[in-house]
Design brief:
Length: 885
């Protein structure tokens, strides 16, 4: 029997990428990794703006060898077109006519200028998906506002919760806002493609990077919507071990203690050989926060006795979740990445041999494909235009002149092809693009729950499986008005945000009957997603080999800390520990300060969005081949991929890079500056000499504009502190909102460093209807109706949205088990035997004291900034609604 020929999941998909920047390029890169033919349209002379960003392979600036460009553009083809000319624009339209997906990374006004604004793509090519990636969306007061990575990080609220207690809000590592925007956009592209290939109907997919960032804050918004508090930055001390990166003998270690996650404090104290940690003052989360300074001093003194890798590996042997801060150079030497075959070796025609980060997940359906280097500028112009019917002579004429008229070219594209035949029933009106897809989730915290939230928001039927013995560990914080209530496990904001639109069942998988119920559930599924450590599913008899015996065409995704393979395979992980281990924390913080974590369990969110890409690509592959697959995704590898340019730079021998705080390597000034009021800040980026002149005029500093040493970005960078002082003197007496508005009116990228309260009350987000309301069941007590982040990506033809609030524990047992064929008597028997249920076991209920922290303790530790007792009225929830759901 001949062997099955594996083909890439996006085989046959043509993607056209237009516009510079990181987000659109990364979105297209993810699709290229899945086998799509990505055609990147660039300016003939300048190319993509990231081509000018160093460091460069070989040490000299070159349009083809920048580390950022190489990281973002492997596997693509480059076509050089001048879109300001009639001929160049006409050829772009022929590319659009033949595309399945068009990805644009331009401001709305620029889209309009080149003829791709509004519904122009669908007007030309009704089956095409147009992914419009912008900073602030296609509508609203900030529609065309200038932006930078720093201002986007501030606009989405991530900067405000990142940084040391006494520092200004701090930018996340490198280009994380744009990377996370691009990965979410790729999931939207594939959901819309799924719909288009079912129905022949393309659509606009609108992605605002600000909204994506606001949607990954992991319950920080619920600090305000549940308690009226503003979540702040890293606390005054790291003794609570929630945000800790603590120094050891030769670097920094990330000890992590998660109460309720099968790790007890006594084990932690025993491992560190610190019996003093068993003092009753440290027995609860509240106690550790209140006594954090003393706790940090005790633990840091002990950590100084050993090196970081010694602590990391020995802690993991004890099944304690530690991470370690690594640099890009250390990642290149990592035995886990080497054993997993993470790196791709390519030969670049200019840069020579390169080691670059590979695909961020692997699958049983992977096919052997030689990795392709990032393209040279215009390298594929002749080949791609030849596919459109443009002769070689016409291509040469186009390259030689920017004034060729469009009528000189009449290529025969695919624009006149009829829409694809509908191969199955179309998506019913009012449902999301993934209506009819069933997903089973065994996930905790955020990496898998946020993945399935994305799928559920787009219409999938997601069934969340927990157990009364082990409910999702984040069901415990924060509570309405900081009151746990009778059913506290149904009242936690950190759980309720990523689990809307899902159904929930409880099954004890430790029992034979529970395994039987679970297998019957899997038999009804299209997709199963889990984030247990590798040994768990095999010990339960529920690994992929066992489950395909039940559902031969099952798509299963395993999202683990370090993947199923390699020497670190069985190491435990949380987003807080993977971020430093993956090298992200190496780039967060001041140059003269310690490495820091982002203010959330950050790597969970890249892992979730990349997992969504993997699942949606696998669904397309299944529809074309009838085969399922097992996807092995290591969150460690995803985190490393999100600093891809730093890894490429290290691989080519560039000088080691480190933290820049809020400054930029090329633009100056850039920073976060104090404004009037308590902890109020504004971020700005000056990206040209003309903008610096405008800034000097605005702040009344003509002497700076006249200073010859400040007439270049390099010169301003050398005297950044002096420029900062002048800017701060002007901003500090004015409101952050006024400063940001006046800077934008002068053409400078600027944003308030948004708090969660700012986001919820923001005029731009309100006008766009970003936040949606969800009404909780009466069993949750006074939880009632609360606002939650809306769609991370907006699919205009199949909009999706919040259909229902997060479920109670075991809320849908009867409904789901009845669908599986269990009658009322059998369902009652499952509950009486403890296989299913609605209440956690007694020890989980008794552990609530671990999680309640008084307001005074939160404020004293620096975790929150004040409290609005009237927050519900401010949100409009006791008068007019905040926004229609």
């Amino acid at each position: 029997m001949p062997a099955t020929r594996h083909v890439p999941p996006l085989d046959g998909v043509r993607v056209v990428e237009v516009g510079g920047g990181v987000a659109a390029a990364f979105c297209a890169r993810l699709l290229a990794d899945c086998g799509a033919d990505v055609v990147k349209v660039e300016h003939p002379r300048r190319g993509d703006g990231t081509r000018s960003s160093g460091p460069f392979a070989g040490g000299r600036p070159h349009t083809d060898t920048g580390a950022l460009f190489i990281a973002l553009n492997t596997g693509k083809r480059s076509v050089a077109l001048d879109l300001k000319t009639a001929s160049g624009n006409a050829l772009l339209m022929r590319l659009v006519d033949g595309a399945d997906v068009v990805i644009t990374g331009l401001r709305p006004a620029s889209l309009d200028r080149i003829g791709l604004g509004g519904g122009a793509v669908q007007a030309r090519n009704p089956r095409a998906v147009h992914v419009a990636l912008t900073s602030f969306g296609l509508s609203g007061p900030l529609r065309d506002a200038p932006a930078s990575e720093l201002t986007l990080c501030c606009a989405g609220g991530l900067a405000y919760v990142t940084g040391e207690y006494s520092d200004p809000p701090t930018k996340s590592a490198l280009d994380q806002a744009q990377y996370i925007g691009g990965s979410h956009a790729a999931s939207g592209a594939l959901a819309a493609l799924w719909h288009a290939e079912r129905t022949g109907e393309g659509q606009l997919v609108e992605v605002s990077i600000q909204e994506v960032v606001a949607g990954i804050l992991q319950g920080k918004l619920s600090y305000y919507t549940y308690m009226g508090c503003v979540a702040r930055r890293q606390p005054k001390s790291s003794g609570s071990l929630q945000y800790a990166l603590l120094p050891c003998r030769d670097g920094y270690i990330a000890p992590m203690f998660v109460p309720g996650a099968n790790v007890d404090w006594e084990l932690f104290a025993t491992f560190l050989e610190l019996p003093e940690l068993m003092d009753e003052r440290f027995a609860t989360r509240a106690g550790r926060i209140e006594n954090g300074a003393e706790l940090e001093q005790i633990i840091t003194a002990r950590l100084a006795e050993k090196g970081k890798y010694e602590w990391f590996h020995s802690a993991q042997e004890w099944r304690l979740t530690f991470g370690v801060v690594q640099s890009p150079e250390e990642l290149l030497r990592c035995p886990q990445l080497e054993a997993r075959g993470y790196w791709s070796e390519v030969h670049h025609p200019v840069a020579g041999p390169l080691r670059i980060p590979g695909q961020m997940f692997r699958s049983t359906e992977d096919c052997e494909r030689l990795p392709q280097p990032a393209p040279r500028l215009g390298e594929h112009t002749a080949a791609v235009l030849g596919e459109l019917g443009v002769s070689t002579g016409d291509v040469l004429a186009l390259q030689a002149s920017s004034s060729v008229r469009s009528q000189e070219f009449s290529p025969a594209g695919r624009g006149a092809d009829p829409p694809r035949a509908v191969t199955s029933a179309g998506t019913p009106s009012g449902h999301g693009a993934l209506h009819g897809v069933r997903v089973i989730e065994c996930g905790e915290a955020y990496a898998v729950p946020h993945l399935t939230r994305l799928l559920a928001d787009m219409g999938a039927d997601v069934i969340k499986v927990e157990s009364c013995y082990r409910p999702d560990v984040v069901r415990v914080w924060p509570f309405p008005d900081n009151v746990p209530g009778e059913q506290f496990w149904n009242r936690g904001g950190v759980f309720n945000e990523p689990n809307r639109n899902k159904r929930a069942v409880t099954i004890d998988l430790r029992t034979p009957k529970g395994v039987e119920v679970f297998k019957r559930l899997i038999a009804t599924a299209d997709v199963f997603c889990e984030n247990y450590t590798p040994r768990v599913m095999s010990q339960l008899g529920l690994d992929y080999k066992q489950l395909v015996a039940v559902k031969p065409d099952l798509i299963m995704l395993s999202s683990t800390g370090y993947g199923h393979g390699g020497p670190w395979m069985h190491y435990t992980a949380w987003g807080f520990t993977v971020e430093p281990t993956a090298g992200v924390s190496h780039f967060v913080g001041r140059p003269d300060g310690p490495p820091l974590r982002t203010g959330i369990a950050y790597v969970d969110m890249p892992a979730a969005s990349v997992s969504a890409v993997a699942v949606l690509a696998a669904l397309r592959h299944h529809r074309r081949t009838g085969r399922g697959q097992w996807i092995d995704l290591a969150q460690y590898e995803v985190g490393a991929g999100f600093i891809g340019e730093a890894l490429v730079a290290a691989a080519v021998g560039a000088p080691p890079q480190t933290r820049t705080g809020n400054r930029h390597r090329s633009h100056a000034p850039q920073g976060v500056y104090p404004c009037a009021g308590t902890d109020r800040w504004v971020a700005l980026t000056v990206s040209s000499d003309g903008q610096f002149t405008a800034l000097c005029d605005l702040i009344g500093a003509p002497e700076l504009a006249a200073d010859a040493s400040l007439r270049s970005a390099e010169g301003r960078g050398a005297r950044h502190a002096a420029v900062d002082a002048a800017v701060s003197a002007w901003t500090s007496s004015r409101s952050a909102e006024d400063v940001a508005t006046r800077l934008r009116e002068s053409g400078i990228a600027a944003m308030v460093a948004m708090t969660v309260k700012d986001l919820l009350l923001d005029e731009h987000l309100r006008e766009r209807g970003y936040f949606e309301l969800a009404t909780h069941r009466p069993e949750t007590g006074d939880l009632g109706t609360r606002p939650y982040p809306g769609m991370a990506v907006r699919l205009h033809a199949t909009p999706g949205g919040i259909r229902c609030a997060a479920p109670l524990l075991g809320q849908d047992n009867d409904e789901v088990f009845a669908e599986l064929g269990y009658d009322a008597g059998e369902r009652a028997e499952l509950e009486s035997e403890g296989v299913s249920g609605h209440w956690p076991v007694r020890e989980r209920i008794d552990a609530i004291g671990q999680h309640v922290v008084p307001y005074a303790s939160l404020t004293g530790a620096g975790l929150i900034e004040g409290r609005d007792a009237d927050f519900m009225e401010r949100l409009g929830l006791r008068a007019a609604p905040l926004v229609a759901s």
